[in-house]
Design goal:
129 residues; 2 domains; 3-stranded antiparallel sheet; two-stranded antiparallel sheet; 3 helices; 5 strands; elongated; binds zinc ion
């Protein structure tokens, strides 16, 4: 998956004509396309189509490292592999439940399954740490 790293320059930055300036100190962002239905990744909303996420760094090399990590997470998500995520399982379950209730689907069984998923994830975490 192609992830473009670029700068969002401040209005008075001397380098604002160069989206890829190596060190002007303005915030770095990632831009990429997601071809799958909307989901979440590490608490961030992943939309179908173009996504723009803050890299949360001003340092180009750091952004490159984060872009690689993001790329492997996205690839894993594409292949249906479990992704190392933080809060996201709960977020995903909540979102799913919300989706079901807004679509008039019965949540009693879904709610149970969601809670079960939490337990499984907690167990996984204990094993890997
Ligand atoms: Zn700048």
């Amino acid at each position: 998956m192609e992830i473009t790293t670029y700068r969002r320059h401040s209005a008075n930055c001397k380098h604002k004509d160069d989206r890829y300036h190596p060190r002007c100190g303005c915030p770095l962002w990632f831009q990429f396309n997601w071809s799958q239905p909307a989901t979440t990744l590490e608490g961030n909303k992943l939309r179908r189509g173009q996504n723009k996420w803050a890299a949360e760094t001003h340092i180009w090399s750091e952004a490159q490292t984060k872009a690689k990590q993001l790329n492997s997470n996205l690839e894993a998500l594409l292949q249906g592999k479990p992704v190392r995520q933080n809060v996201t399982v709960k977020a995903a379950v909540d979102e799913w439940l919300e989706f079901r209730s807004t679509n008039g689907l019965d949540n009693r069984k879904a709610d149970l399954m969601g809670r079960k998923a939490h337990r499984v994830v907690r167990k996984e975490r204990c094993r890997s740490s």
